[in-house]
């Protein structure tokens, strides 16, 4: 889980670097609870992955900095600046990484949707994913094509109706849907094109709302 990867190193370093039990375990418990809460939020609301992770990391850094300053004030008569300094440096680096992530989200690149957004197809239907390469990316969008053929004797209209039912069950209620939430404005879009004996599904990944 992303929150564990972001906050875990801080938690593991805080425990040996804290100089008093009075600060060590309460802060460690707060960090563990913050990680668990963020992970549950990501599971319940996956579209908010970046926002939840960024907020959790910022909260963890704030908790550690405040705790380290409070601890240093309590132990001013026995300062150990090296231990606190390393922790603050790491916290600053992780916070800088979070800010860089924020910048990437504000100006991201297009992406290629995974074929498993629509696959597997219902039993009896054959789906072929066209190979993806750099030429499938244009201005602000990357596309991927999947060709679906029906059962022997299945009409084109029946094939399209069956695929549309399958796509609705996979969450494709509209042509485009958001991938992220507040910061990540990416969208993934889907369109169907009926041919004589097969159906073409076109997936596109867009960094930004459709039309931006």
Please give a structural write-up.
The protein has helices at residues 2-17, 21-44, 49-74, 81-106, 156-169, and strands at 126-129, 141-149, 176-178, 187-194, 198-206. The chain has a five-stranded antiparallel sheet with strand order 1-2-5-4-3. A hairpin with an 8-residue loop joins strand 3 and strand 4. With 212 residues, it is of the alpha+beta class. The chain is elongated.
List keywords for this structure.
alpha+beta, single chain, 5 helices, 2 domains, five-stranded antiparallel sheet, 212 residues, elongated
Short description:
With 212 residues, the chain is an alpha+beta fold. It has helices at 2-17, 21-44, 49-74, 81-106, 156-169, and strands at 126-129, 141-149, 176-178, 187-194, 198-206.
């Amino acid at each position: 889980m992303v929150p564990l990867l972001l906050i875990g190193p801080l938690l593991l370093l805080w425990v040996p670097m804290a100089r008093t039990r009075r600060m060590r375990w309460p802060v460690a418990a707060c960090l563990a609870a913050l990680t668990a809460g963020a992970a549950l939020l990501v599971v319940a609301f996956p579209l908010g992955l970046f926002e939840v992770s960024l907020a959790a990391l910022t909260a963890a850094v704030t908790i550690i900095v405040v705790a380290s300053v409070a601890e240093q004030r309590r132990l001013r008569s026995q300062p150990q600046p090296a231990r606190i300094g390393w922790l603050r440096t790491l916290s600053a680096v992780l916070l800088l990484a979070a800010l860089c992530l924020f910048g990437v989200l504000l100006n991201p690149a297009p992406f290629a949707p995974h074929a498993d957004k629509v696959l597997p197809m219902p039993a009896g239907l054959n789906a072929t994913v066209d190979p993806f390469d750099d030429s499938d990316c244009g201005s602000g969008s990357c596309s991927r094509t999947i060709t679906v053929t029906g059962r022997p004797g299945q009409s084109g209209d029946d094939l399209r109706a069956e695929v549309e039912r399958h796509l609705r069950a996979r969450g494709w209620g509209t042509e485009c849907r958001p991938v992220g939430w507040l910061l990540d404005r990416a969208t993934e879009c889907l369109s169907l094109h009926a041919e004589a004996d097969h159906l073409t599904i076109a997936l596109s990944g867009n960094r930004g709302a459709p039309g931006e």
